[in-house]
């Protein structure tokens, strides 16, 4: 299996606190990799470091066999797209205006806009089902519609690697499935390499080709969801007692939480 992105002994710190501590990780080309773990385990920091939005104290991130530190910003932005948590834009901005921002890495003073840019924007809007919303103001959209527009903006970058940080955060159940089905379809039909951060372990197991468990800034285990969705391992990583059964619809492992075992939340009798 060919690695599209490789993280080699990466450490990222905020002041004296190491949010990512000596992480080594491979992201297979053309697959969906999901980062999962408890709050504060370093998932978002690791994802942002892959896009070089956080500087590495040590270690490196490779795109194929190229160290991303050697790439110019627009070069990297043409290879890796990132949708951060809870992105924001002016409410009076139109949908098409936001999606067009995804073409920034392809712009230059000599060629500010091209037919290829227009095609990329149209393809992104139609692919995410927001073309009919092109003239709507962002403030008039529902949460699910707005998230599709943000994903369209990332798709308009036409990057091979797409990083999405909690893309279903704050969405209801129907829109969560709708959004992740869209991401899965883009992976299958267009061969995009996708890296997702998800809090919901069952959604992670359902959509991931490769699942990565993180805790306290380190990778605990990485592999097939069927291997990682094991009661003892989930207990060690997430601090819960659970049962793992097979989802009768999707034939994927499903976690049923029973009680919290983390000492941080222990309640005296």
Automatic annotation (TrEMBL):
UniProt-listed GO biological process terms: iron ion transport
Residue ranges constituting the ABC transporter domain according to the UniProt record: 5-241
Give the superkingdom in one word.
Bacteria
GO terms for MF: ATP binding; ATP hydrolysis activity
- Cell compartment(s), UniProt: Cell membrane
Per its UniProt record, what Gene3D superfamilies does this chain match? Answer: P-loop containing nucleotide triphosphate hydrolases (3.40.50.300)
- Please give the InterPro entries that the UniProt record associates with this protein: AAA+_ATPase, ABC_transporter-like_ATP-bd, ABC_transporter-like_CS, P-loop_NTPase, Siderophore_ABC-ATPase
Q: Where are the transmembrane segments?
A: none
Metal-binding as UniProt keyword: no
Q: Which GO terms describe its cellular component?
A: plasma membrane
One Pfam family assigned to this protein is ABC_tran
Q: How does it sit in the membrane?
A: Peripheral membrane protein
Where would you say this protein principally sits, based on its record?
membrane
Keywords of the record, alphabetical order, are: ATP-binding, Cell membrane, Ion transport, Iron, Iron transport, Membrane, Nucleotide-binding, Transport
**Entry's family note:** Belongs to the ABC transporter superfamily.
Name of the protein described by the UniProt record: ABC transporter ATP-binding protein
This protein's species is Paradevosia shaoguanensis
């Amino acid at each position: 299996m060919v690695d599209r992105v490789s993280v080699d002994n990466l450490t990222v710190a905020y002041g004296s606190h190491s949010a990512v501590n000596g992480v080594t990780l491979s992201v297979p080309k053309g697959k969906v990799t999901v980062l999962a773990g408890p709050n504060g385990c370093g998932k978002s920091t690791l994802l942002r470091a892959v896009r070089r939005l956080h500087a590495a104290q040590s270690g490196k991130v490779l795109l194929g066999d190229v160290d991303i530190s050697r790439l110019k910003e627009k070069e990297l932005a043409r290879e890796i797209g990132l949708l951060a948590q809870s992105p924001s834009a002016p409410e009076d901005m139109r949908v098409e205006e936001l999606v067009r921002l995804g073409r920034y890495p392809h712009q230059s003073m000599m060629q500010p806009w091209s037919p290829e840019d227009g095609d990329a924007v149209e393809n992104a809007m139609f692919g995410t089902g927001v073309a009919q919303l092109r003239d709507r103001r962002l403030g008039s959209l529902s949460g699910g519609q707005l998230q599709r527009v943000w994903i369209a903006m990332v798709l308009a970058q036409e990057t091979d690697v797409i990083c999405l940080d909690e893309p279903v955060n704050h969405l209801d159940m129907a829109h969560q499935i709708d959004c992740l089905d869209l991401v899965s379809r883009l992976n299958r039909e267009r061969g995009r390499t996708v890296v997702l951060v998800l809090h919901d372990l069952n959604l992670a197991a359902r959509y991931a080709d490769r699942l990565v468990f993180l805790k306290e800034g380190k990778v605990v285990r990485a592999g097939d969801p069927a291997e990682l969705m094991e009661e003892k391992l989930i207990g060690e990583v997430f601090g819960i007692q659970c049962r793992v059964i097979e989802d009768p619809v999707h034939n994927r492992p499903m976690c049923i939480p029973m009680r919290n075992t983390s000492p941080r939340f222990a309640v005296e009798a």
